[in-house]
Task: inverse folding
């Protein structure tokens, strides 16, 4: 919904209720699994475990000649998020549902000068996961990133288009391992080694930073109805090392002897050239 105060200033708002019947399983803490592995499960109608989301946003748009300024505050609440973790309960893997709350502020600024375009987008947000079935209380969600900044520039000269962009994000959260606990039960007398954590998602990976550069050439071929679009780009131009996830696993989960803790850290895309050729009518 929008309301125009004047030709250049508009007030906008939105509100929605959403339901989803297939859920992505959230993992907190790892034991032999990468934290960023995606698992999807179907909801059970008899238990009412489908995702329910409430989303609301309020903002203002200021758009004078060749300028655009967009400010927006938003709130998202999602309930029924399926979670699984071997660290929520030392009796073993438990499954449960939790709620995710997101508060955010987004700012978008655009400016156009003849053949040159510039825009900058910054999001400040806080994403909290609430799990009633665990003793950890509220903690940052797996995708909680306080700052997300993007700067994009394009310049057009005749049939050529040049682009240069910069991305910055604060690091994703991960859980700091505190040790190994040996667990047994009446049903299973075998000693099982489990990773233990004092808190979940209590540390942040290194900040993400990346510069991309691209060149595109557009022209007509043979007839006015045949078009050619050729593009060359270099992703992560400076080859910045960006961490994506950090996981731990035990070398031997069923052993009376001390187990070895192994760590795996994965990284984002390195410097990568891309080329595309497209014909269209």
Result:
């Amino acid at each position: 919904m929008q309301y125009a105060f004047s030709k250049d200033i508009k007030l906008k708002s939105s509100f929605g209720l959403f339901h989803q019947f297939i859920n992505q399983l959230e993992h907190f803490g790892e034991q032999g699994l990468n934290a960023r592995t995606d698992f999807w499960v179907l909801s059970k109608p008899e238990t009412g475990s489908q995702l329910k989301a409430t989303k609301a946003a309020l903002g203002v748009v200021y758009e004078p000649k060749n300028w655009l300024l967009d400010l927006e505050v938003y709130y998202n609440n999602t309930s029924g998020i399926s979670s699984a973790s071997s660290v929520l309960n030392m009796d073993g893997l438990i499954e449960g549902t939790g709620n995710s709350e997101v508060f955010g502020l987004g700012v978008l600024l655009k400016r156009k000068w003849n053949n040159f375009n510039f825009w900058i987008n910054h999001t400040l947000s806080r994403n909290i996961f609430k799990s009633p079935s665990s003793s950890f209380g509220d903690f940052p969600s797996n995708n909680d990133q306080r700052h997300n900044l993007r700067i994009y520039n394009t310049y057009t000269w005749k049939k050529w288009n040049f682009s240069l962009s910069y991305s910055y994000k604060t690091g994703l959260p991960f859980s700091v391992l505190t040790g190994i606990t040996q667990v047994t039960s009446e049903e299973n007398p075998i000693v099982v080694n489990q990773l233990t954590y004092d808190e979940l998602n209590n540390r942040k990976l290194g900040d993400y930073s990346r510069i991309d550069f691209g060149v595109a050439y557009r022209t007509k071929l043979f007839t006015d109805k045949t078009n050619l679009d050729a593009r060359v780009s270099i992703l992560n131009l400076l080859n910045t090392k960006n961490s994506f996830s950090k996981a731990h696993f035990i070398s031997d989960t069923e052993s009376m002897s001390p187990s070895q803790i192994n760590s795996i850290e994965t990284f984002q895309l390195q410097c990568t050239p891309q080329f595309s050729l497209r014909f269209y009518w």
Remarks:
- Residues 1 and 13 are 5 Å apart (CA to CA).
- DSSP finds no helices and 20 strands in the chain.
- Confidence is low (pLDDT under 50) at residues 30-36, 85-94.
